[in-house]
Design goal:
Radius of gyration: 17 Å
Subcellular location: Cell membrane; Membrane
Pfam family, one: SecG
Shape: elongated
Organism: Candidatus Xianfuyuplasma coldseepsis
Largest sheet: none
InterPro entries: SecG
Distance between the termini: 13 Å
Strand content: under 5%
Membrane topology: Multi-pass membrane protein
Number of strands: 0
Amino acid sequence: MRGIDIVLLILSLLLITIVVLQSSKDNAANAFSGEKSELFNNQKQRGFELIMNITTLVVSVFFIVTSILALAL
């Protein structure tokens, strides 16, 4: 296994973990009842949610760049 493959494996596991830790903004019960509350849709993210979204973005970019490098090498 090449070093870049190990980095890709670590980044993919980290990305999966970060996405699973994020909280869902939709309620599953509303998906089946057809009810959609848009009262809180325009709230800014703060604290933990903001950190998780930024971390997800950064890890995703690293994953994409590493994937492209792995194909090129």
